Amino acid sequence: MDHKHHNHHANHQPSETSTSHKEGHAGHGNGHDKHAGHNPKMFRDRFWFSLVLTLPILYFSEQFQAWFHYQALQFPGVAWLNPLLGSILFFYGGLVFLQSARHELMARQPGMMTLISLAITVAYVYSLATSFGAPGMPFYWELATLLVIMLLGHWVEMASVQGASRALDELATLVPHEAHKLVNGSVEDVPVSSLKTGDEVLIRPGEQIPIDGDVFDGSSSVNEAFLTGESKPVSKQEGDEVVAGAVNGEGALSIKVIRTGDETTLSQIQRLVEEAQSSRSRFQNLADRAAGWLFYIAVGAGIVTFLIWITISQDIQTAIARTVTVLVIACPHALGLAIPLVIVNATAMNAKNGILVRNRDAFERARNIKQVAFDKTGTLTEGKFGVRQIYTDELSDDEALALAAALETRSEHALAQAIVAEAQKENLGLQQASEFEVIAGKGIRAKLAGQSYTVGRPEWIKEQGLDLSAELKQGLDEAEARGESVIALMDSSKVLALFALADKVRERAKETIQALKEIGVESIMITGDAEAVAKTVAAELGINRYHARVLPQDKAKLVRDLKQKGQTAFTGDGINDAPALLEADLGIAIGAGTNVAIESADLVLVENDPKDVLVAIKLSQASYRKMNQNLWWATGYNAIAIPLAMGLLAWTGFILSPAVGAIFMSLSTVVVALNAVALRRVRLD
Questions:
Q1: Measuring CA to CA, how many Å separate 216 from each of 184, 242, 326?
Q2: Residue 332 confidence (pLDDT) above 50
Q3: Please, which residues have CB within 8 angstroms of residue 539's CB and are 6 or more apart in sequence?
């Protein structure tokens, strides 16, 4: 794994107030967070305590006794039991709502908490007034049931939000606190925090890797599921990179530390998760604005309701009961959950698919993407050479490959290593070469079984005056026309074989291009390679539009031009892609861990799989549908429920009580939550 630019963003610290790099992104701090400082346990404890107090309030309620025809136990001071329990409930169970309402009002952003506080305050103050002799019937039972239902709703909301992102939060627990440091041949257990770049660490079988490092001794298989979502262990040997949080398999590994602390892949991912969780989408801001408007509508409707009912019925208790019902019904629980639950589920699904979302607003841009521009090397291709074809005259392909690999084993050249890797893949037995000699700029010369061979550039054929058969000449012309690199295997008199090498196309790149086409998204390839190479790769992938010989500094200009024809995403894998990632409507960085231009991207694809671009776009479109459905339900529900709470159908005998209003409100919340969870059933492949 290449980590030549892993320090690109090494010491970046997350900022609570950081804003997006693109116009149109929402900053992290927009709007008051109604659950700042809250946790599910707090709501759970208050819910159970309030429920225990609610039972005697219901039992001693005058209304309940009349409805169910029973006489409650009588004892001195029984009349003051419900006011006492109601007061405890109001100040203990309701305090969390009252405090949050104060924050909303101070921020001049009244919303759900202000509505709830208004409803319970009206109910409590009126009930207390009747207990001290004011005309009317107290409804402590309605205050109690309203509070219990509200506390339950918030407990469920926070538990579901926390549950959906728990997999991401658990990243912090992946790293062990101690590491086995190698010092002068012996092993010392030291705190992970004390390790420095260059230190050597032993990883025993079954242990979690505490730090990012390069393997310099040993071989094993390592489970990197937390990073890639792929449960299949990845084999690691000398020269490979391992990352903190991965689990070592059956073998011991000695690694040299390359990244520590905040620079590790795991820390970077944690930071991305924090940024994603604190960023706000345009839809979230829309929902918050709707909740604010709903507050004013509810207060206005409450005042109108009170004036109408006090005029019609001349009964202040009836007027207040109707007013409280309006305020309860208007509590925008469903509206408050409409967007967050969709985003939370989408974020969890992204993480499961190895996609990290830097800014949630990226979801809304992704759904409108019409073109995806792909950087070729390292994105559509693997960024390393592979043997595409072997041209032989008298030898078989395997014989030629085994011969060339035996000669190239000691060479460090990338093309030579590609031939050796191909021979290993085919499990070919290699002979031992002797008298190995590097001829600068041309190739290598060595002996096998006493016979002299040369392996090198095609230009060396003519220089040595060797024979090249018509069949091999045709193969050479074909490979060069495709822009491929060619290695010739020669003996003292003639050319034995030619190896055409090319940057290997990623396995799933072709099906990704086809799948994108099927959903109406055009793929465009951008590369700095020659026209012949670009044309060959584009044809292999089924890409109609490509741009060759594009310099790194020109990629951003090209993306800017593409944007004139529609919303454009750019997918790249390196620092030189950063300007283009910033310029695009949606910047997608592809690559494992830190080896990507993370700071410039909206989405980071942890795995080297272009198919995840398709997954991200499909998930964005599905999320948008769910957000729309939830917003329509939440606002549509209030449009119907508020007039009913005002008593629109009172002439038919249909009257909504505050408690029934609270139940209906909670049911709307359940509908929104279930619809958000249904996002997990969307097919993304």
A1: 15, 11, 70
A2: yes
A3: none
Q: Which residue has the higher pLDDT, 355 or 277?
A: 355
Closest by Cα among 675, 661, 602 to 633: 675
Q: Tokens in use for 496?
A: 């034995």
Concatenate the DSSP letters of all residues of 268-296 into one string. Answer: HHHHHHHHHHH-B-HHHHHHHHHHHHHHH
In angstroms and rounded to an integer, the radius of gyration of the C-alpha atoms of the chain is: 34
Residue 57 has which token pair? 């309030």
Phi, psi of 482 (to 5 degrees): -85, -5
CA distance 278 to 168: 13
| DSSP secondary structure of 110-143 | --HHHHHHHHHHHHHHHHHHHHTT-SS---HHHH
In this structure, of 102-106, 333-337, 450-454, the range with the lowest mean pLDDT score is 333-337
Determine how β-strand 253-259 pairs with β-strand 200-203.
Answer: antiparallel
Q: Max alpha carbon distance in the chain (Å)?
A: 120
Residues with a catalytic annotation lie at 375
* pLDDT computed for residue 11 by the predictor: 34
Rounded distance, CA 483 to CA 492, Å? 28
Whole-angstrom Cα distance, residue 530 to residue 581? 23
Q: How confident is the model at residue 595 (pLDDT cuts 50, 70, 90)?
A: very low
Res. 473 pLDDT band, cuts 50 70 90 = very high
Cβ–Cβ < 8 Å for 46, 92: yes
Q: What does the pLDDT look like over 527-571, one tens digit per residue?
A: 877 788 888 889 989 999 999 888 767 888 899 899 999 999 998
pLDDT greater than 50 at residue 23:
no
Contacts of residue 28, Cβ cutoff 8 Å, sequence gap at least 6: 15, 16, 17, 18, 19, 275, 278, 279, 280
Contact 72, 60 (CB under 8 A): yes
Per-residue tokens: 77: 């001071």
Structure tokens at 645: 């709470």
Domains of the chain, each with CATH number or no CATH: 176-263 (2.70.150.10), 383-505 (3.40.1110.10)
- 346, 619 Cβ separation under 8 angstroms: yes
Residues 6+ apart with CB under 8 A from 318: 309
Is the CB of residue 71 less than 8 Å from the CB of residue 42?
no
For residue 154, give every residue at least 6 positions away whose Cβ sits within 8 Å of its Cβ, in sequence order, or none. 35, 38, 43, 96
- What is the band of 285 on the pLDDT scale with cuts at 50, 70, 90? low
Instruction: Say whether 582 sits in a helix, a strand or coil.
Output: helix
CB distance 111 to 288 below 8 Å: yes
Tokens matching residue 51: 């429920």
DSSP conformation letters of 586-611: EEEEESSTTSS-GGG-SEEESSS-TH
Q: Rounded CA gap, 182 and 256, in Å?
A: 10
Q: Cβ distance 387 to 414 under 8 Å?
A: no
Q: Which residues, 6 or more positions from 114, have their beta carbon under 8 angstroms from its beta carbon?
A: 101, 104, 105, 295
For residue 19, what pLDDT is reported?
A: 33
